[in-house]
Every structure is written in C-alpha cells, then in structure tokens.
Design goal:
This protein is an alpha/beta fold. The protein is about 30% helix and about 25% strand. It has a single domain, classed as Rossmann fold (3-Layer(aba) Sandwich).
Length: about 270
C-alpha cells in the first residue's frame, strides 16, 4: 500500500463530507455496492477551500487499502472536534443519509476511532459490519499527562510532549473521562462486530521496538505500547457477541497488519 503526504493528495474533490467534528475523504471510488469507512484515529483540519492547514505529525494518507474490495472513505477528526460523542453523531448522520446506494457498509476504526464507532452504533439505521482495532474502551494512560510524567524520564517526556497535543478526542480516551463514563456501546449488539486486540510480542520493525519499550515504561503487562490488552478486551467482555481476534502487533501497525490478513500476525 502506497502512502502519500497530506499536501500531495488532498484537494477539494476528495472531500466528501466535513463538519466541525468529522472529515471524510474519498480514498478510492470503484463504483462498487460495498463501501468501507476506515479511520486510523488521526486528526486533520481543512480550511473553507478544503486545503489542509493542520494534521498529526508525520501523517500520510493511504493511496488505497489493497485488501479492501469496494469504495473506500477515509475518516479523520478535525482538531476543532468537540469530542468522540459529537464525531459519532455526525458520522452516523452521514451513513444514514448519504450511503443508501451501498448494499454493504463496513466501518473500521483504529484506536480512539474504534471507540467512537462503537459508541455511535446506537444511532445507525443501516445494517453494517463494524471492526474495532486496538481500541481503548477503558481508556489509555498515554493521554494522561500527569501519569505519563511520573513514568517517563525527563528526556522521554519531552519527546512525548512533542507529539501529544491534548485534542478533545484524545482527552475523551483518558481513563475515567466523562465520555467513557457515559459511553453507550450497546448498539454493537445489532451488528456483526469484530474486536481486534493487539499485543506487541515479537519485534519485527523499529516501530515495534519503540512500542515494546513504551509498553515497559508505562507498566503494561500486556499491551501494544499505547493501549493495554484489558482495555481493548472490555467491549467483548460486556458484549460476548462481539467476536475477538488477537494479533501480534504494536499500536502503530496493528491496523495494517490486520488488513494484510497475514496469518503470521494472528495469535492462536
């Protein structure tokens, strides 16, 4: 899968839908009766001319997800988003009102986007398949600056602070946040749902090494470097109908490894 820089590929024709809380881009249009909405849980804002002016560090946009056969829509959280609840309301409205032409709709959310999708399920009126990847349903301490400061060295914390901007959607996945305490995931019972749980076991890439080290520094016994396994498992524990799949992956590459369908990543 080729990935392009934000400036290289984004223009007014690729923006399908935008509100203060959610941004949808057309990644691939095949004319299929199947559509995928895929979110890596990243943030990006565009101006009135749909030109990006702010995005997460080192962010790229995929040219297409090779294993997904159908139309592909990428979802992002604008920096001005009021939170995961509001993003879910806006996304559900788009699916309910603008995707009637599709016979099949598959929603895939990585990290906080997975939590957003699970919470928005209660508003959906269309039969869908939902896939949650490395989703912190009980939150993740990486969003709690006070707890992270206690666990990292001064140098490590300075690096962390360069990348963590305390967006509202990130604060929503802080353990004990108002959003998590009030989230209602019961809508997932209406659909086919898969909960992909990642744990960094084998270090195959430099990213894996970094996440494995962060796993240790944050004090996770089992985790993917950002989210511990217990937080990811929570949805399947309260709603056993949600299927569980365990993969050997760090948080940074769990979505790509799951979509690759490579059996070597599946934990038996």
């Amino acid at each position: 899968m080729r990935r392009r820089s934000v400036n290289e590929c984004l223009n007014i024709r690729t923006v399908l839908y935008k509100t203060p809380n959610v941004l949808l881009l057309e990644i691939k249009n095949t004319g299929s009766d199947t559509a995928f909405i895929v979110s890596e849980g990243l943030s990006m804002s565009v101006n009135d001319q749909n030109i990006p002016y702010r995005w997460d560090p080192y962010m790229t946009i995929p040219d297409g997800y090779d294993t997904l056969e159908g139309d592909i829509i990428g979802m992002y959280f604008p920096f001005e988003s009021a939170g995961l609840e509001e993003a879910g309301i806006d996304l559900a409205a788009y699916v309910n009102e603008n995707m009637q032409k599709y016979k099949n709709i598959i929603l895939i959310g990585h990290s906080k986007a997975g939590v957003c999708l699970a919470n928005m399920a209660k508003w959906l009126k269309r039969v869908t398949t939902m896939i949650f990847v490395s989703a912190p349903f009980l939150g993740t301490i990486i969003t709690d600056t006070k707890r992270v400061r206690q666990k990292l060295t001064k140098t490590e914390y300075s690096i962390y602070w360069k990348y963590y901007n305390q967006h509202k959607v990130d604060l929503d996945i802080m353990p004990g946040s108002d959003f998590l305490r009030n989230a209602n995931f019961s809508g997932v019972q209406k659909y086919v749902c898969i909960n992909v749980i990642s744990e960094c076991i084998h270090m195959r890439t430099p990213v894996d090494i970094g996440c494995k080290y962060l796993n240790y520094r944050l004090g996770y016994r089992h985790g993917d470097g950002i989210v511990n396994v217990a937080s990811q498992e929570f949805l399947s524990l309260i709603y056993p109908k949600v299927q569980k799949i365990y993969i050997d992956a760090s948080h940074a590459n769990s979505l790509i490894r799951y979509l690759s369908k490579d059996a070597k990543y599946i934990i038996q």
